[in-house]
Amino acid sequence: MSAVTALPTPVAASGTAISPPVIDFQSVGQTFVSSDGSRVEALQGVNLSLRRHEFVSVIGPSGCGKSTLLRLAAGLLMPSSGTVSIFGVPVTAPRDEIGFAFQRPTLLPWLDVIDNITFPMRHKYGRVEQRDVKRANELLETIGLRDFARKRPNELSGGMQQRVAIARALLHDPDILLMDEPFSALDALTRDEMSFELLRIWAERPKTVVFVTHSIQEALLLSDRIVVMSARPGRVSEIIDVPLARPRNLATLSDPVFTQLANEIRVKVFTRKPE
Q: Which InterPro entries does the record match to this protein (predicted)?
């Protein structure tokens, strides 16, 4: 297991840069002003770079700025200091190449599954094209919900609703998928099922994924690297390479290396003091 504090830009044998990182945080800080006028420093000096089609999980104590990182990458927030870049271009607004899956499905109860999946197109452009409906049906096939296209959200289980939310985030086939604890409200068995489902979808349609979670097991199962954040103000304390072979399956969970890594990360997260 190796750890680094930041990932440098890849360099070819000739000495020339290969390409800019897909997502690049450079000296990023974020401060919020509370309702009582006090200032809360959520992030401080974050340096983090992600490669194309890499799956990176972010873990750390509550309030360390994990969700803030996602909102900055999505262009929903502008950093108080430093820069956030996507494909080498500073982020100044939400971008089309990004899909966002939230902690809860946030499906509209009066719309059926297909209309929920295609709703972002209606919201953004005022209409839904036939190609959008076709793509939505293809995604339903991918997530195993082909027969539920015309069901309402209250007719679906929690896991099925979360599948629909992920399909909605994937509708425009984004290069980047940001996921903010998308399985945290699910029971343990459904959560494991959704983790394997996400692995399958990611293998079939590769994306650069940033996945926020409090589950060390979930982070290990899914990720190429795990970013460990310090307590607020959140900083990148360590970046851990996950040496587990892909594809991963149920047998991965019983791999001695998996268990060893989980124990080591648990110690890092729960014994780390604010820096």
A: AAA+_ATPase, ABC_transporter-like_ATP-bd, ABC_transporter-like_CS, ABC_transporter_ATP-bind, P-loop_NTPase
